[in-house]
Amino acid sequence: MIKVLITGGNGDIAKAIARILEKNLQYKVLLPSKEELDVTDIDKVKSYMMKEKPDILINNAGAILIDGIANNNINKHKNIIDVNLTGVFACTGALLKINPKAKIINIGSSAGTKIHANWSSYCATKAAVIMATKCWAEEGVDAICLSPGRTLTKMRKSMYPNENPNSLMKVDDFAIVVKKAIENEYPKGANLDINIDNIREYIHA
Fold this sequence. Notes:
Blueprint lengths: L1 E5 L5 H10 L5 E4 L11 H11 L3 E4 L14 H25 L4 E5 L12 H19 L3 E7 L5 H6 L11 H12 L8 E4 L4 H5 L2
Parallel strand pairs: 1-2, 1-3, 3-4, 4-5, 5-6
Helix pairs in contact: 1-6, 2-3, 3-4
């Protein structure tokens, strides 16, 4: 049995990945709530990893703040950095300490390579996750970053309620790409920028 831990377990992407993986009986999926695994609490992260010892970590927990830096809401930006970046380091480091051969799949974002006014903390953290993935691969870690573009999730709908859902990537399609990454169908250290225009290419690659 291959144990897969997905952080941010209440999100649409996490649930879609779990649905896809659970069709195959070789996977046991862990979808902890924030109360069970707060990725910003380093001690709790260490305890959770020691208890569960997953084979695969999908760093999916994420948060966004739409706010210009001139407003000086530093504590709010710090929270985004803690969830999106520090949490990725904490979870990855804690797992590799006990299982150096664990596979790490980081869920980045196309915003990590694109400019969005008022999204600076989100874009900066996702850019950092992309680069961290490449560095970890150079260290010998089995790591890859998957960066979805505009995706049909509750978070996206709350931000853009009038957006045409047919213009967005479906979470189940993205989840198929995640499964293929688990099965080593993409190169280690890569950042795959995945969106509605190229999703079929990745699914059928």
